[in-house]
Structure formats: structure tokens, C-alpha cells
Automatic annotation (TrEMBL):
It comes from the Bacteria. Residues 218-272 form the DprA winged helix domain. InterPro entries: DprA (IPR003488), DprA_WH (IPR041614), DrpA_SLOG (IPR057666), WH-like_DNA-bd_sf (IPR036388). PANTHER family: PROTEIN SMF. Belongs to the DprA/Smf family. It comes from Oribacterium asaccharolyticum ACB7. Residues 5-210 form the Smf/DprA SLOG domain. GO terms for biological process: DNA-mediated transformation. This is Uncharacterized protein. Pfam families: DNA_processg_A, WHD_DprA.
Length: 282
């Protein structure tokens, strides 16, 4: 673990420029490089399977363009974003509300270790510091500071996620939200952000535009589907299939199939019109 003081050359410029900049940070692994584009992906700790699938897919696609993913390693959306970045072979950075040597939540120990290998674990709190409630409020400004762009995937109308959003806006960052169904409690926060002027995130292309990157100009190898995703992809046809037909053919519930299809669509493997999904040639 390294301690990096604000006066040192290695202290990240992104954090040096924010209000209430930390006097030092503790680091396991690496910081984002100065010219490395970064995207923060945040959302509800009790995110739905759909929300977690969207976060994972967005992160997995974005790292293919050399973009680093920043989040807080919390349950739900945060963890899904980190996993997506790792699955895509990219870099991801976790900003903790505890000491950098304290994995919280403990169930994320394996994820914590994987992040440290290729990305970085970052904290402003001294080694051994416990995960206190006010630490998470304070660390949100660092998540915003390390992110060039911020995406909110799922959030309640009154959510701690908005603390990070407010800090990002104060820092002049662009904020995006993933829209959701008006009847879903975890979509109300995102839909509210969209009403207030946040950018709409329907796929990675909406985010790539912020960095003047065109979809298709990937800097890394093409992403491969896992076994379950490939099974669904192979069942699709160019002229489309209704989701109910796919569910029956694959002997899979619509509830399980839907987030897989959303992930495939976000990754550019299929497209939808209503409840009909069409395969795209790779």
C-alpha cells in the first residue's frame, strides 16, 4: 500500500482540482493514468437483476475502448460495474469508505483482490479505518472526481446516489442516467435525473460520444460471450423472435431471459423492436 500526499507529483490531478481535495490518499494497485478516460458507474445497493446486467454490460463494453471504470465496490450496481470491467479485460478503480486495506463488504473479497491486480483500490482513510456511514458520504466526491463522466443505472427517488451526482455536477462533470419503467421504485431516481436534464444512456455509444470515440473503434480485442449469453445469441434469428418464443425454446423463464437480452443489446449483439429481438451478425 502506498500513501500519496497531495503535494507529491503522483497525486492524481483529477482529485487535486476538486473542492475539499483530500490531503492524502492510500492506494493498493494503480491510479488511472492522466490521459486515461474514466467513467463512473453507480447505483442502488439492492439493484435488480436487470440493473446489474446493464451495469455489467456497459462496463464490459466501455473498457474495450480503453476507458477505466470507477465505482465504490458496494453491493449491487457498483459490484456489477467492477465485474463487467474485469470480464472485459479492462481496468477498474474502487473508492472505499474504509481503509484501503479493509475489504467492505467482506463478501467482495475476491472482487477486491481482482480489482487490485489490474486497477486500483483507493481511499482517503488511514489503513485499518472501519467503514463508517459518514465515510461513504465523504468518499462520493472522490468517485465523482476520478470520473470524467458519471452514469447512474438504478436509484430510488431519494437515494445516497444523488450525493455523488451533486458532487459530479459541482465539479462540472456530465451525468447520464439509464431510464427505467415508471412503475419501478429503483427507476424513479434515474427518471427524475432525466427530467432534470441528465443525459440519457441507452448504450455505450451515448458515452463514447463524450470522448469523441466512434462505436467500433475498439482498442482491445472483441468481447466474447459467456456460455449462457452465447446460447441465447445462437437462438436468435436475423428476422427476429418474440421473447416468449425464445423463452419456450430455451426452456428459460422470461424473467431470467430478459436481462440477458438487454445485455446482448447493449453489447451490440442484437436489437429489439418491442418484445421481438433480432440477431446481429458478428
Amino acid at each position: 500500500m502506498r500513501e500519496i500526499l497531495a503535494m507529491e507529483e503522483d497525486f492524481p490531478e483529477r482529485l487535486r482540482e476538486i473542492p475539499d481535495s483530500p490531503k492524502c490518499i492510500y492506494l493498493i494497485g494503480n491510479l488511472p493514468e492522466k490521459k486515461e478516460p474514466t467513467v463512473g458507474i453507480i447505483g442502488a445497493r439492492n439493484g435488480t437483476e436487470y440493473g446489474k446486467k446493464v451495469a455489467l454490460s456497459l462496463a464490459r463494453e466501455l473498457v474495450a475502448y480503453g476507458i477505466g471504470i470507477v465505482s465504490g465496490m458496494a453491493y449491487g450496481i457498483d459490484s456489477a460495474a467492477h465485474r463487467g470491467a474485469l470480464e472485459g479485460g479492462g481496468k477498474t478503480y474502487a473508492v472505499l469508505g474504509s481503509g484501503a486495506d479493509v475489504c467492505y463488504p467482506a463478501v467482495n473479497q475476491k472482487l477486491y483482490e481482482e480489482i487490485a491486480k489490474t486497477g486500483g483500490i483507493i481511499s482517503e482513510y488511514a489503513p485499518g479505518a472501519p467503514p463508517l456511514p459518514h465515510h461513504f458520504v465523504e468518499r462520493n466526491r472522490l468517485i465523482a472526481g476520478l470520473s470524467d463522466v458519471l452514469i447512474v443505472v438504478e436509484a430510488r427517488e431519494r437515494s445516497g446516489t444523488f450525493i455523488t451526482v451533486d458532487r459530479a455536477l459541482e465539479q462540472g462533470k456530465q451525468v447520464f442516467a439509464v431510464p427505467g419503467r415508471i412503475s419501478d421504485a429503483l427507476s424513479k431516481g434515474c427518471n427524475k435525473l432525466l427530467m432534470e436534464g441528465a443525459g440519457i444512456c441507452l448504450s455505450q455509444a451515448d458515452i463514447l460520444h463524450c470522448f469523441s470515440i466512434e462505436a467500433g473503434e475498439k482498442k482491445q480485442a472483441e468481447i466474447h460471450l459467456n456460455e449462457e449469453e452465447n446460447r441465447v445469441y445462437q437462438a436468435l434469428r436475423l428476422d427476429g423472435k418474440h421473447i416468449d418464443c425464445l423463452a419456450k425454446e430455451l426452456k428459460m423463464s422470461v424473467e431470467k431471459l430478459y436481462p440477458i437480452l438487454i445485455g446482448l443489446e447493449l453489447s451490440g449483439y442484437c436489437e429489439s423492436k418491442g418484445n421481438t429481438y433480432s440477431r446481429r451478425s458478428l
